[in-house]
Amino acid sequence: MEARISLVTLGVRDLERSIAFYRDGLRWPLSSASSGDVAFFRTGGTVLALFPYDELAADANLLPDGSAFGGIALAHNVARKELVDAVLAEAHATRRCSHSCSEFPRPRDSLP
User: What dotted CATH number matches 7-103?
Assistant: First the structure.
């Protein structure tokens, strides 16, 4: 598996305010792939995404009450959907993986 983080997603309570901080305060350009419910910023090879906190928790199959979810997700994107199972199997085969591969969130067709 290539050592790479493709995407860092932050779960935010106020999406518009968070977008304004990165876009207007830090002057990071907002990606055209952004939509009304998610914002993307390219940061030198890794993409920073802002996503509503409760929705990000639900995407990870966790409760949004903060007891098990810290509000951040890291992604290792692969070129084709068919490669997802192979990458998860490789991670699981190391015996250092604390989850079974079936517990990992599956890819979503709606993401760019």
Answer: 3.10.180
